[in-house]
């Protein structure tokens, strides 16, 4: 009995590790966006399913009997797809999503916006913005070729960026001291980010607050209409309980893209 974890997050990796340690068969699914992903424990498949229909076919073929959607809070397509696919196939599904930063002590001092275009509009007067809203949002900031933008990304940008922009390639977690140094050395006046939540990337917000900088933050999309779990421990318990209560369904097929076929 295999549980499918839709991953790409630290929580997804922690869940896979916990389930493997408990002897549960898991397969983690990654989109394949990152060049050198942190691979989770257990089996791994990489690449899209081909929309909700493709994911439903994957489930119908018996690759997994239950799904944990542990994708990033700002990955709306895969979350929408798995809700549809689970509904089409009657597959148990829960969402594992870390709490956002709405409860952060300084949250009411930040400017909350619905999307990247609104973030740019809200920070239009910034001279030296620090952009940590992700690679896919960069086109929304193209009009800022006229200023010194500091961009932080995991992988290099797909397209050439404006001449005045500087790129930091790195992957969290980030420390308070390191973030404070970046903000000071680059003379940042506005930090732009999205409500990823968690502790790995919150230090920039703490440092920005202490330095008196403005923060513009993109709010999370509407939650998916499925049971929401906030911690890896809750998701682990759900998987164990679901494994124990559902009738045994043998995996009828194997996904060709298992970890043994991964180049990295
Ligand atoms: P997205 O816009 O919701 O997804 C776009 C397409 O990528 C989906 O329709 C699906 O293709 C495929 N896909 C996404 N996640 C997948 C997964 N875990 N396994 C298999 N296919 C997946 O997502 P995104 O913003 O491109 O993010 C891609 C992945 O990066 C997510 O898994 C997410 O957890 C991770 N991530 C995203 C962010 C972010 O800020 N967006 C940050 C950190 C990590 P098909 O329709 O062909 O199935």
Q: Can you lay out the helices and strands and say which pair or pack?
A:
Elements: E1 2-6, H1 10-21, E2 25-30, E3 43-46, H2 51-60, E4 66-69, H3 76-89, E5 93-96, E6 111-113, H4 116-122, E7 129-131, E8 150-153, E9 166-169, H5 176-185, E10 190-194, H6 203-210, E11 214-218, E12 228-229, H7 232-245
Parallel strand pairs: 1-2, 1-4, 2-3, 4-5, 5-12, 6-11, 7-8, 7-10, 8-9, 10-11
Helix pairs in contact: 1-7, 2-3, 5-6
The structure holds NADP nicotinamide-adenine-dinucleotide phosphate.
NADP nicotinamide-adenine-dinucleotide phosphate binds next to strand 2, helix 2 and helix 3.
Structural features, described:
With 264 residues, the chain is an alpha/beta fold. 28% of the residues lie in helices and 19% in strands. The chain is built from 7 helices and 12 strands. The strands form 2 sheets. A 6-stranded parallel sheet has the order 3-2-1-4-5-12, sandwiched between helices. It has a 6-stranded parallel sheet with strand order 6-11-10-7-8-9, sandwiched between helices. Helix 1 (10-21) links the parallel strand 1 (2-6) and strand 2 (25-30). Helix 5 crosses helix 6. The longest helix has 14 residues, at 76-89. The protein is elongated, with a radius of gyration of 20 Å. Residues 249-264 have low confidence and may be disordered. NADP nicotinamide-adenine-dinucleotide phosphate binds at residues 6-9, 29-31, 33, 48-51, 54-55, 71-72, 74-78, 81, 134.
């Amino acid at each position: 009995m295999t549980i499918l974890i839709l991953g790409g997050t630290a929580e997804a990796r922690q869940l896979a590790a916990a389930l493997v340690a408990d002897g549960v068969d898991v397969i983690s699914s990654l989109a394949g966006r990152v060049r050198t992903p942190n691979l989770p424990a257990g089996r791994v498949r990489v690449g899209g399913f081909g929309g909700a229909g493709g994911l439903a076919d994957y489930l119908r073929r018996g690759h997994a009997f239950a799904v944990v959607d542990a994708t990033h809070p700002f990955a709306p397509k895969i979350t929408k797809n798995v809700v549809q696919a689970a509904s089409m196939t009657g597959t148990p599904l829960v969402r594992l999503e870390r709490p956002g930063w709405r409860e952060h002590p300084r949250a009411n001092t930040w400017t909350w916006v619905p999307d990247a275009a609104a973030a740019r509009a809200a920070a239009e007067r910034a001279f030296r913005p620090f952009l940590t809203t992700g690679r896919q949002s960069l086109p929304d900031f193209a009009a800022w070729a006229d200023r010194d933008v500091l961009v932080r990304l995991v992988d290099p940008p797909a397209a050439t960026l404006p001449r005045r922009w500087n790129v930091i390639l790195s992957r969290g977690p980030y420390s308070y001291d390191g973030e404070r140094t970046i903000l000071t050395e680059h003379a940042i006046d506005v930090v732009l980010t999205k409500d990823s939540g968690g502790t790995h990337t919150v230090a920039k917000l703490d440092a920005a607050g202490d330095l008196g900088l403005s923060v513009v933050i993109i709010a999370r999309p509407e939650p998916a209409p499925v049971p929401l779990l906030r911690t890896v421990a809750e998701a682990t318990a759900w998987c164990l309980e679901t494994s124990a209560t559902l009738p045994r369904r043998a995996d009828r097929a194997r996904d060709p893209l298992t970890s043994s076929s991964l180049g990295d």
